[in-house]
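Moderator note: this is an archived Q&A kept for reference. The question asked for a predicted structure of one protein chain; the sequence and the answer are reproduced below.
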Amino acid sequence: MSLKRNKRSPSGSGTFPTYSNFSAENNARPTSVEAILPQCGFDITPNVTIQNFGENDLTEVEITYSVNGGASQNYTWTGSLLSLQSEIVELPAISYVVQDVNTIEISLSDDDDNSDNQISENFNIANEHTTTINMILSTDNAGSQCTWDLMNAGGETLYSGGPYGNNESVVEQFELTDDCYRFRIFDSAGNGGGSIVLYDTNNDVVYNSPGNYGAREEAHFKTVGELGNNDNILSNVVIYPNPATNNLNIQNAENSSIKVFDLLGRIVALENNISLNQQLDVSKLTTGTYLIKIINGNQVKTDKFIINR
């Protein structure tokens, strides 16, 4: 493996910072690896920052990387970095066998100081969720900029949506099989949009954002059936009216606990040991969409309701 650098030569006005006391003439160093989201099997495209700690200009580096001790891939970076300058390098996608805790190892080609040529970063396996996933999306005043998709491990797009109208409320339900999935949301203007939440039948949040997802964000998750959840006791629960104004009625959930969440996952109302015909005061909640989680022992029922005034 080779690593090439050129001696610095003045150009233009001939002015540039002067550095001295470097321990090596040629010394490239990987200084950081961008954090990797929890994964469940999709190929990853790592970003590594390389920095020139040598006296000479850095013009070429061979980067070798692997995940969990699997097959290595090589990528040759070319460019021009003066002493102490750095650059983020996006490496080509690499496949791997996912583990509970995964490790990517990155090394740079030999130079005058090989003691600092390696770096590693750990990332976790994606969370497990039930096979039914719900999505609530509220667009902003530029709904036409918002799109999304949901893809399985085989690269097949199962669901997608958008563009939408302005200030629109979008509710979707995804029926999935046991697999690994990737959800992505996009904004064509690059400045995010309205709020969005994905959650499963246990009310565990898959992904949520108040809208600050920039041009794109993504989340990975696994589905494994109903995770032992059984709603038989709660199958006759009735929640009304919906939309609600000041009061929400919950029937046939005696001795259960209830939690109400906003779309950011915050608990905004809580009641324990409710009655057979429970009335919940929601007069202080602002207009919008909420999730209600009813818990009885190890059984959970999740539903949504709207406050509309």
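Archived answer notes: The radius of gyration is 26 Å.
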